[in-house]
Write a structure and sequence with these properties.
Largest sheet: 7 strands, mixed
Keywords: ATP-binding, Cell membrane, Kinase, Membrane, Nucleotide-binding, Phosphoprotein, Transferase, Transmembrane, Transmembrane helix, Two-component regulatory system
Subcellular location: Cell membrane
Strand content: 25-35%
Radius of gyration: 15 Å
Protein name: histidine kinase
Number of strands: 7
GO molecular function: ATP binding
Number of helices: 4
Shape: globular
Structural class: alpha+beta
Main location: membrane
Bound molecules: adenosine-5'-triphosphate, magnesium ion
Distance between the termini: 12 Å
Length: 156
């Protein structure tokens, strides 16, 4: 299905706007308006972004920022969820997409969650023919980068 990604990013950002304002986190969408459509299931894509943004909010202190970026590169869309939060230690990064894997039990217990979100996100993105990876620096922030195939129909 051809999907307007910008619309989904805006929906997700609207959904978390109140929570971000309460936590003094600035949340914004950074895209160009004329992005091509992607080929995806919109509900699944929403589920992926919902998890990534809620992860970012859980791990970003007040005065931080979360940015949702989308840009088309060659024949894929590249989407980034960037946060300025606590980051993920390098020794945990290789295992972060495993089911139930969570960084540091004490910190995870406080923040809640089951450790399934990222494994589901990976499953969904790969089922669409895309890729997903995470870059992170402790105390600087985390960026989740995923790709999706473009829809053949062209501009949204
Ligand atoms: P669930 O998504 O099932 O509610 P969860 O958020 O703990 O639970 P995942 O979304 O799979 O599970 O994330 C796994 C772990 O990766 C988290 O517990 C957290 O330790 C770490 N993590 C994920 N996203 C971030 C982020 N943006 N910044 C710092 N750590 C993160
Ligand atoms: Mg999660």
């Amino acid at each position: 299905t051809p999907v307007n990604l910008v619309q989904i990013l805006d929906d997700v950002a609207d959904r978390f706007a109140f929570q971000c304002r309460q936590q003094e986190i600035s949340l914004f969408v950074d895209t160009t308006s004329s992005l091509p459509n992607v080929c995806a299931d919109p509900d699944k894509l929403d589920q992926v972004l919902d998890n990534l943004v809620s992860n970012a909010i859980k791990h970003t202190p007040p005065k931080g920022m979360i940015r949702l970026e989308a840009a088309s590169a060659q024949d894929v869309m590249q989407v980034k969820v960037v946060d300025s939060g606590m980051g993920i230690p390098p020794q945990d990064l290789p295992r972060i997409f495993e089911r139930f894997y969570r960084v540091d039990k004490a910190r995870s217990r406080k923040l809640g969650g089951t450790g399934l979100g990222l494994s589901i996100a990976k499953q969904i993105i790969e089922a669409h023919g895309g890729t997903i990876r995470i870059e992170s620096v402790v105390d600087q922030g985390t960026t989740v980068i995923f790709t999706l195939p473009l829809a053949k129909e062209g501009i949204a």
